[in-house]
Prior knowledge:
4 helices
Amino acid sequence: MLIEKGNLSLSRAKKEKTLAFSQLRVAFQGAGSRTQGTQPRYAYTGKWQGSLTTPAGQSSLDLTGALQFPTSGPFNLFADAVSASGKLSANGIGGQASGKLSLNTQANTLEAKELSGQLLTKDASASFTGSVSGTRLDANPAWDASLSVSTGNLRALLAQWGMLPSSLPQQALRQAQIKAKIRADESILRLSELEGRVDDTRLAGQIEGTKGTPPHWTAKLRLGTLRLGDYLPASSKYAQPSTPWQTEWLRKVQLDGDLSVERLVIARIPHENLTVPVTIKNGVLTADPIKARVAGGTAGAGLRAEGTAGGLLARLRYTLSAVNVLTLCKERGQEQLLSGTGSLDADVSGLLRSGADIPAALSGTLNFVIRNGELDAKKPGPMSRFSSLSASGALSKGILTTRDLNLSGGLSVRGQGSINLINKTLNYALNVTGPGIPEIPVRYYGSLDAPQRSFNATGILANVFNSIGSGVLNILDIVVSAPLRLLAP
């Protein structure tokens, strides 16, 4: 049977939905019979083939088994676990699937078991297995599914649908294996018993969204190891991406969620057993209190971000307490090792339009203290040993200024200066004293990566300074550079 240029009814509801087609073809090869009983039916057993061509694309369906129709009354179609295979191509995306199909148009139900298939694009593919069932197909369909999906070309799939950020690093979103139970109807979408892996990160949990103004989502997710730097937009050494952030979505959704991560690496700092409660309401994202373990100590944080017409109004608080600094240096893979017990307290805020506003648009405070350690843990000794290394500072327009750098130990150092976080330079003035060393002023300036050193000493002071040797000078270099390297991304 061939029908050209028509409309196919998709619903029996009052507001009937139709699908325009240019060609509909149905073929059957087999035999028919009439069943017995109080509700006799015509049963046609054999091979059924159907194809449909629409402006959007093409589809085909092959069935092997018995299709039944009523002998009288309204037209209906019945199938019980018939072998089925189908193909679909539309808008550059193709798919194919096979399984066992059951259908009852009188009860408006459909079920597909033992499903397996593929989703295909020009550059990528995804495979899936599982089962799908639907009820109330005539009016407000409700769908239940248990599916497993995997792809080794996740980036290409997301790019096909316009969902891949252009600045995302190449190592991000390479592959995924996900399985979940799914419930969807006109008012709810639920993913339960969710588990799988994206790249090298394991995940599990559940997500649920309910219809409303705005839609309300709840989520509870557990992740394994996640290296956040693998997913942050790529940037040059001195510039962040200037693409404006879109914040309107914050007012179009409501969220209550809980996230836990076994190991989250941020700025090369591993955070163990991280917990994050997240809410989005009335355009404000809040994550507070954030808790984790870092190098034998604790980390805490709080984030508030509000979408405004001028950008993202954000505030971040971050603390470290009782951290083993030597362990932290090793975990970060630093060549220079500092030891001691450290604490940090940072509080920054600002109106951000894009990543390019960081750090220029931020203001706030930062202070740290490290107690009872070695400036050079590889070569411990009297000049390296200290009881306290501390500083506090104020951040404004990308410049961090401190007036109380203080080292108490084999050497005594007092200092003040500034760090320009935008062009990555510093300018510090120190006063240094120690056993047999009169107070000598020393200046550090230039790039953060390789600061230059000069000292203002003449006559006897110059002779003393030259006589103390390179060891003390190296210790001074560490006083300036160690905190910077410890905190640098």
